[in-house]
Every structure is written in structure tokens, then in C-alpha cells.
Amino acid sequence: MSDNRDLLFLGSLATGLAIALIVYGGRETIAQAFLKMEADIAEKLRRLRVHTRHLRFWLLAWLGGVVAAFVGLTFVVGSLIFALIAAVFLLAVPWYLLRRLAELYHRKIEDQLADAMVTLANAVRAGLSLAQALEILAAQCPRPINAEFRQIVAEYNLGKPLDRTLIEAKERLKSENFALFAAALLASHEHGGRLNETVERIAGSVLELQRLERKVLSETAQARKSAIYMAFAPLVFLIGFYFMDPENTMLLFTQPLGHLLLGMAIILDVVAYLWARALLRPDI
Predict the structure, then answer these.
(1) Neighbours of 25 (CB within 10 A)
(2) Among 165, 207, 204, which residue's Cα sits nearest to residue 185?
(3) What is the dihedral of CA 205, 210, 216, 217, to 10 degrees?
(4) DSSP three-state, residue 64
(5) What is the arithmetic mean of pLDDT over 272-279?
(6) Of 4, 56, 231, 245, which residue is most buried, by most CB within 10 angstroms?
(7) Interatomic CA distance for residues 242 and 277, integer angstroms
(8) What percent of the chain has pLDDT over 70?
């Protein structure tokens, strides 16, 4: 038993040294990848209107926790494959959740944008200026789009040109519909014209696109549920096999070949689920 522990310790130590050498040799590439990851996460946090002041500190703490989990699982569980899978999941899951939150926020903005356009057109038709109409949107629109209009109005009241605030909002939201809306506002602000008619046409187009997207979502709802069920199916089968043949099923958790098979199954299951979500995502 002691010989096996010594071999496990030496193998884990050699693996750790090899990983340390690889990290040291590719430190420049790793640094560039870290900067790209930091920029991507910062962009999503800004879209969610979350401060990024201490982002680098939390990212380093997160990566340190991943490394600690990898080392701990390598020594405690004695499986390099499980440790690698756990490290990959600890890296990917928070980023994926943040990405999903940013997508949900963006979808809410898109859903509320058409109603905001109609409100602005009515305000302009009533004789209000563009700045006054934006103040009405900031006060009356629901969350989260009201926060965007509040920022536009606040920056304008502080002395920033209206065209600059609209351009920055367009860059911040990265929405094609809002880009059309901002272009109409900028054109009206610079050259005049019937802003209410232009905005109403854009609002009609946005509402039609939303109707088509909701139709696609409703028709693919069952398929998306099936993808979730299929993602959990291997776990259900594994539990069933354990009750039918616990001795051989435990070999998957105690033998290196079993670790490899489980690792491949987990990776393929996750890839299949993400692929199914990508195929069922409406793109109109």
C-alpha cells in the first residue's frame, strides 16, 4: 500500500513539474490569453452595468482557486483526468453563466426597445424636443432599458454632446435595432426631419422581427427541452447501472481506464448539449 502511495505521489509530482515547465515556457501566450479573457469578461460586465474596477484581482483569485482545485484533486482523488475535467469546468462554467446573463440582459433590451421607440415617437409628435423625449423614456420605460436612457440623459445634462452619448450607447449595447434607432435620432438631431415617422417605421420592423423570433422559439421549445433531457440521460443511466451492477460500475471511478471513459463521456455530453443549443438558437 505504501509503495502505491509513493508511486502516486511521485507521478503527481512529476505531472505538476511538467505542467509548471509548460506554463513557464508558454507564459507569453498565457499572458495574452489572460488579457483577452479579461477584456471579454469586462465587456460582458459593462453590458450588465457592473463595475470592473477590481476585475483583475478577482480573475487572479479565480484562476488561483482553479489551480488549487486541480492540485488538490490530483493528490486527493489520485486521478489526473478528473482533475483536468474539474479545472476545465471551473474555468468554463462561470464564464458561461456570465455570458448567459449578458444574453438575457440583451434580450430584455431588445424586447423593450420597440415600445420605447413608440413612446419617443408619441412624445416628439406632441411637440417635445428630442432631449425631452429621452427624459420621458428614462422616467417611464421599464428596467433594464430605462438605465440606458438614464445614462444618456445624465451624460447629456452634464454637458456631453447628444450625438456622442448616442454613439457610446450604441457601442455599449451592440444591438442592431438600437443602432438603427440611434441612427434615426442622430439624423434628426443633425439634419431635422420627421423623426416620429422614421422611428415608428423602425419600431414596426423591430416588432415584426420580435414576432418571428418568438414564433421560432415557440416551435423549437420542445426540441430545447429534449436537449436538456438528453444531457442528463447519461447520469440517469450511470445511476441505474450502479444499482444493477455496483461492483463493475465502481471500476469507472477507481481505474484509470474508467476515469478516461467517464471523462470522454462528460466532454461529449457537454459538447452535444452546446451544439444542440447553437442549432436551435433563432437567428433572424
Answers:
(1) 10
(2) 165
(3) 170
(4) helix
(5) 83
(6) 231
(7) 30
(8) 87
Set of cell numbers at residue 279? 442549432
Could you give the 3-state DSSP secondary structure of residue 284? coil
- pLDDT tens-digit series, residues 218-263: 877 788 888 888 888 888 888 888 888 888 888 888 777 887 888 8
Cell numbers found for residue 117 = 421607440
Class of domain 106-211: mainly alpha
Buried b (16+ CB within 10 A) or exposed e, 142-158: eeebbebbbbbbebbee
Residue 62 is predicted with a pLDDT of: 87
**Which element (helix H / strand E) includes 216?**
helix 195-219
Q: What is the mean pLDDT of residues 38-45?
A: 83
Residue 45 exposed, middle or buried by CB count within 10 Å (0-12, 13-18, 19+): middle
**pLDDT tens digits, 121-143:** 888 888 888 788 888 888 888 88
Q: Does the pLDDT of residue 274 top 50, yes or no?
A: yes
Average pLDDT over residues 16-26: 66
- Say how far apart CA 193 and CA 188 lie, in whole Å: 6
C-alpha cell at 59: 480573475
Q: What residues contact residue 133 under an 8 Å CB cut-off, 6+ apart?
A: 120, 123, 124
The C-alpha atoms of residue 153 and residue 181 are separated, in whole angstroms, by 16
Number of C-beta neighbours around residue 200 at 10 A: 18
Q: Are 145 and 109 in contact (CB under 8 A)?
A: yes
Residue indicated by cell numbers 483569485: 61
**What's the pLDDT score for residue 1?**
47
If DSSP codes are grouped into helix, strand and coil, which group holds residue 78?
A: coil
CA proximity to 284, closest of 212, 226, 224: 212
SS3 87: helix
